[in-house]
Amino acid sequence: MIAALALSTSLVSAQVVLDQVPELQGVDVVEHLGQTIPLNLTFTDDAGRTVTLGDYFANHTPVLLTLGYYECPMLCNLVLNGVIEASKKLSWRPGQEYRIVTVSIDPLETSELAAAKKRNYIEKLGIAGADAGWAFLVGDESQSRALADAVGFRYVYDSTSGQYAHPAVIMLMSPDGKITRYLYGISFSERDLRLALFEASEGKIGSTLDRIILSCYHYDPNAKGYVLFATKLMRLGGAASLFVITVTLGTLWLRERRRLRRRTVWVHDPRA
């Protein structure tokens, strides 16, 4: 109850701040879970090549999408740093089990700037081969705006400061471009990212243990993360207990049956 009250109070306080700061009005995330993003949108990658979003869904792995801009003085860097810290803890690697795609919302940014940003973050990530699994894109405003609208990423440009005001969020996509989860904030737990990627992959990556863990957790939009679902846990615990009891009783029954069989043989044939 106390935790819920604290969360409610913090959300109300956040809304008050948004309402009182003109620069932040219009900044929001409108979740479009289950909808498919337009994979035909065209961008320029960090190597200067023309690409489409669909190019990053061609190897049938889930995609972690971030929107922001490369000359962002603070928030974008914090979000990407959060992605790096969570990714370092995963046993899965970008470019193998999943991909990361970062798209600039600033139409004035260049592929050279994207390349410099990529070098910096790939070095921070420190995972061999990750450069092939993390793309930094730039493009025309019509394309980035269309992508932002598709995922419900609402941002505004402040002409006074020359900066963009935008939310702190990452999006998880299924291999066919369907939006499966939003994770909010500037830090992400390894568990939340792993479960979100497993969910986005439709069970195609991960292990049986990951599937069991996901069955015990569900995404709570109020908590902005995966929380333990007590009912599922109790069901799983009950099933596990029944399995243990069954195995134990079966083992005892087999032992008793063997003991009686040996006794019967001894009575009828003392030479046995």
Question: Could you write a compact summary of the structure shown?
Answer:
With 272 residues, the protein is of the alpha+beta class. It has helices spanning 2-20, 75-89, 111-125, 141-151, 190-200, 208-216, 230-268; strands spanning 28-29, 42-44, 50-52, 63-68, 99-104, 134-137, 153-154, 156-158, 163-165, 169-173, 179-184, 217-220, 225-228.
Give the secondary structure arrangement, pairings included.
Blueprint lengths: L1 H19 L7 E2 L12 E3 L5 E3 L10 E6 L6 H15 L9 E6 L6 H15 L8 E4 L3 H11 L1 E2 L1 E3 L4 E3 L3 E5 L5 E6 L5 H11 L7 H9 E4 L4 E4 L1 H39 L4
Parallel strand pairs: 4-5, 5-6
Antiparallel strand pairs: 1-7, 2-3, 4-10, 8-9, 10-11, 12-13
The secondary structure category is alpha+beta
Q: What is the arithmetic mean of pLDDT?
A: 80
Q: What level of helicity do the residues show?
A: 40-55%
Strand content of the residues, in percent? 15-25%
Question: What is the count of DSSP helices, taking H or I runs of 4+ residues?
Answer: 7
Biggest pleated-sheet summary: 5 strands, mixed
Number of strands: 13
Q: How far do the termini sit from each other?
A: 70 Å
Overall shape: it is elongated
Low-confidence spans: 1-18, 205-215, 230-240
Q: Give the strand line-up of the largest sheet.
A: 6-5-4-10-11
